[in-house]
Write a structure and sequence with these properties.
Mean pLDDT: 91
Radius of gyration: 23 Å
Low-confidence stretches: 401-417
Distance between the termini: 38 Å
Number of strands: 0
Helix content: over 70%
Shape: globular
């Protein structure tokens, strides 16, 4: 792009202005940037077009990572990072690794897990080329998160432990160590080893407290609460959830707040307090989430509301909710959650007397679950769906005029990103 010296000077000054303004990011800065977000996009857009300002603009874009991550604007920012990676010279290895790290994480947020994993493997390879122990550890840390979400637990644990060793070797601070510990704990949770998972998460929480890393601490408390709840420690879990919310009350981290409300609602549901459960799910169904929130969290909210409607006998509402979230799970390829919702829809159809229409839903849900033999939650779903399917077949044989329902216990997973 050709430009006059005056235009180049103007673009450079604008980029410098935004780099200065975003040098220190906190809650107040985030709120200011929310009002000026489109101006940031313009500054970066023009800065990336000029060779004279390209590198400074890339630095600005990478420095804005926490803002776009914590505010949940990664889908808007993805095309910018994709363009930066495409234009980055192959010989600028250290810079490419930083771009790969961030772009891969935003792909992960967007449920593009295979693409995320490919970028984080490339990040590790660059670290190996450079002999950069910290970059190698970060690449492995990111891969562990990708593998975990792909439900490849052996690979996730191997990568997380390698990352933890790498962070120790390069003298990393408490936050990277805590992230690796949390990842190892989540792998054990997914396998059903809750006592081991709790030990790892307690270590992670303590490290985040030491670093005063508020958002990461809230996320680790949420994960710890999930483990405690699954381990039949609901009172301790609820303490974790409400403490996590307290750290976020003065922030605009809407996605994190919604995830916590999901867990609070699920806990109350399991305790039989349907009113408190529904209230939490309604709090999660904010205007922001309905219009701009990530599909995973939107789907989770709709699924939770579907289950409440099912248990309360509001079957038309339940069926509508199930069908919406099934469509959303399919969009992002979240197959185990899709299986869970198919099972919920099948149960709703049985409750409405449409038993023959329900049986293929059970079949499809069970076929999906077979793809995840190492997932503890998936195997619990399998047992539950097989029992419900057998009951439905018996009801067909008996040919009842109406089929009541007493509701299906819902076990939900909450992700950390």
């Amino acid at each position: 792009m050709s430009s006059t010296p005056q235009f180049t000077k103007s673009v450079a000054a604008n980029v410098a202005y935004w780099r200065k303004r975003t040098e220190f990011l906190d809650v107040d800065t985030y709120r200011e940037l929310n009002r000026d977000r489109q101006n940031i996009f313009k500054a970066v857009k023009f800065g990336l077009r000029l060779p004279e300002t390209w590198l400074d603009t890339v630095e600005l874009a990478l420095e804005l990572f926490d803002y776009f991550d914590k505010q949940g604007y990664w889908r808007e920012w993805l095309p910018t990072l994709e363009q930066i990676l495409q234009d980055c010279p192959q010989d600028k290895l250290a810079l490419r690794a930083r771009i790969l790290d961030q772009l891969g994480l935003f792909y992960r947020h967007n449920r593009q897990l295979e693409r995320a994993l490919a970028l984080h493997i490339e990040e590790e390879e660059i670290g190996l080329q450079l002999g950069d122990l910290e970059r190698i550890a970060f690449g492995r840390m990111q891969q562990s998160g990708d593998y975990w979400r792909l439900r490849q637990y052996d690979a996730a644990e191997k990568a997380a432990k390698a990352a933890l060793t790498g962070f120790h070797d390069c003298g990393a601070g408490p936050v990277p160590l805590a992230n690796a510990m949390m990842m190892i704990g989540l792998v054990h949770q997914s396998r059903g080893a809750l006592d081991v998972a709790e030990e790892w998460l307690l270590q992670a929480v303590n490290h985040f407290r030491e670093a005063d890393a508020t958002v990461s601490l809230a996320r680790s408390l949420l994960n710890l609460g999930n483990i405690l709840e699954n381990g039949d420690k609901p009172e301790q879990a609820l303490v974790c959830y409400y403490e996590a919310l307290s750290f976020l009350k003065d922030t605009d981290n809407e996605v994190d707040k919604v995830r916590i409300e999901h867990s609070i609602g699920t806990l109350y549901y399991h305790q039989g307090d349907l009113a408190a459960a529904e209230a939490a799910f309604i709090r999660a169904n904010t205007p922001y989430m309905r219009h701009w929130g990530p599909i995973y969290e939107r789907s989770m909210t709709i699924m939770n509301l579907a289950n409440i409607c099912l248990v309360q006998g509001r079957l038309d509402e339940a069926e509508e909710h199930w069908r919406i979230c099934i469509n959303l799970w399919q969009q992002i390829g979240s197959n185990l959650m899709l299986a869970n919702s198919l099972g919920g829809l099948a149960e709703t159809l049985v409750a409405r007397g449409y038993i023959k229409q329900a049986l293929p839903k059970f079949d499809r849900a069970l076929a999906i679950i077979e793809e995840f033999p190492d997932d503890a939650w998936g195997q619990r779903l399998k047992v539950m769906f097989l029992e419900e399917q057998a009951d439905a077949i018996e009801k067909i044989k008996a040919r009842p005029s109406a089929v009541p329902t007493d509701g299906r216990p819902q076990v939900l997973l909450t992700e950390d990103d």
